[in-house]
From TrEMBL:
Residues in CENP-V/GFA domain copies: 20-166
An MF annotation (GO) of this entry: zinc ion binding
SUPFAM superfamilies: Mss4-like
Pathway(s) per entry: One-carbon metabolism; formaldehyde degradation; formate from formaldehyde (glutathione route): step 1/3
Species assigned in the record: Rhizodiscina lignyota
Binding site for Zn(2+) 1: C27, C29, C95, C98
Keywords: Lyase, Metal-binding, Zinc
NCBIfam families: formald_GSH, PRK05417.1
Protein name per its UniProtKB record: Putative glutathione-dependent formaldehyde-activating enzyme
Reaction equation(s) it catalyzes: S-(hydroxymethyl)glutathione = glutathione + formaldehyde
Cofactor(s) for this UniProt protein: Zn(2+)
Record bears the keyword Magnesium: no
Similarity remark: Belongs to the Gfa family.
InterPro entries: CENP-V/GFA, Formald_GSH, Mss4-like_sf
Length: 191
């Protein structure tokens, strides 16, 4: 039987809408929910198998995308948020009560500085960009997934149209490497 990976992946992807203008993320508390308004769609949405990204209970993968920092606004119960790991690149702000990660900006010098990581599934609105690829697939083994089942996991991801990678996608890895090369001076600033 095909493995269950995440509710948004298991039965095929739901295509997003090009004209979608955003929505509000809500944490999983039954009352006094933290609310984060996103003024636009997510970009580079992807399945992530890493140990740091938030997953709904029972899911093997997270689904996470990015959005420019200036399109993210906490509109309710900000006092319930705390940063999970202040040393991480992504400063994941989680609800102290239900544990859901509400938004994760990057403050240090980094190719993705200016982008905030978010989980669009925390919103009721429809039209969010569908996942584009699967990242950090081998990382699920670090969390206890049976290494012998990785063939089935990668086949399942491919069957729903997600190319599995063990880091980010080649396009994003190239963008990060270009930023690094330009920062060190190995490449010209404008190429
Ligand atoms: N094997 C590790 C990988 C963790 C990792 O590098 N995660 C990536 C992807 S998160 C969303 O794409 C990353 O960029 N992390 C930076 C950060 O989390 O701050 C593991 O599983 O933990
Ligand atoms: Zn909560
Ligand atoms: Zn991750």
């Amino acid at each position: 039987m095909a493995p269950s990976l995440h509710p948004l992946l298991d039965n095929g992807l739901t295509k997003g809408s090009d004209s979608f203008s955003g929505g509000t993320l809500r944490c999983r508390c039954s009352n006094n929910k933290v609310e984060v308004k996103l003024d636009g769609n997510v970009l580079h949405n992807h399945a992530c198998g890493c140990s740091q990204c938030w997953k709904p209970s029972g899911a093997v993968f997270s689904v996470v995308g990015v959005i420019p920092d200036d399109k993210v606004k906490v509109i309710a119960n900000e006092n319930k948020l705390e940063v999970v790991n202040k040393d991480a690149t992504i400063l994941r702000n989680a609800c102290k009560e239900c544990g859901v990660h509400m938004y994760g900006p990057i403050h240090k010098d980094h190719p993705f500085k200016g982008l905030t990581f978010v989980h669009a599934e925390l919103s009721d609105e429809k039209g969010w960009q569908e996942p584009q690829f699967a990242a950090f697939v081998s990382s699920i083994i670090e969390q206890g997934y049976d290494p012998k089942s990785m063939g089935d996991v990668r086949s399942k991801l491919k069957s729903v149209g997600l190319e599995p990678y063990d880091c980010l996608s080649p396009a994003l890895m190239d963008a990060m490497a270009t930023w690094t090369a330009q920062k060190s001076g190995v490449l010209k600033a404008n190429i």
